[in-house]
Amino acid sequence: KWKILNDQQLHRLMQYLYTRMNYAMVAIVDNRDGKDLEFQLYVDSDHAGDPVDTKSTGGSFCVLVGPHGTWAPLEWMSRKQRATAHSSGEAELVALAEHMKLGLKYALVAEALMGGRQRLVVKCDSSACIGAVTKGYSPMIYTSKTQRINLGWLHDVFFSEEGDHMPLLVKEPTKTNIADLLTKPVN
Most buried among 7, 125, 126, 175, by the most CB within 10 A? Predict the structure, then answer.
């Protein structure tokens, strides 16, 4: 429930933002060779991380990568999932479906602004999730209808017949998955 303390915290936050309206985050992505830029979307999820309602938290981190190793963070997100996942693979699947819309948005905007298609590489640390998306069906027979629809949609996104310009789904070790930080609880 909303309390007076929440009013005070909100007021303090708004004051902070108001005093920094002229600040901006600037990142330079080196593209002097005219090579294509690459969007990388890191996606991760914990499994039943909330000790009270056992819901999982999904997180994503989207960066723009230049050909010379320069990169700029674009957007990051962390959100508690609406339903309880039965397995880690299912939690990762839900996070991937939810956060994939973010990556596609950036790829489409870049296509409109820069012409041509920009590569989108999606990095996930779950072999079960990647395997299910690759096959287009899940051995997790207990997945709900919504998860099966998400799985079908993800399979279509990654493996439709457009070839070279389709997003690429790759396994990223947990140790180097930037989105892993967004699924951990904060004291």
Answer: 126
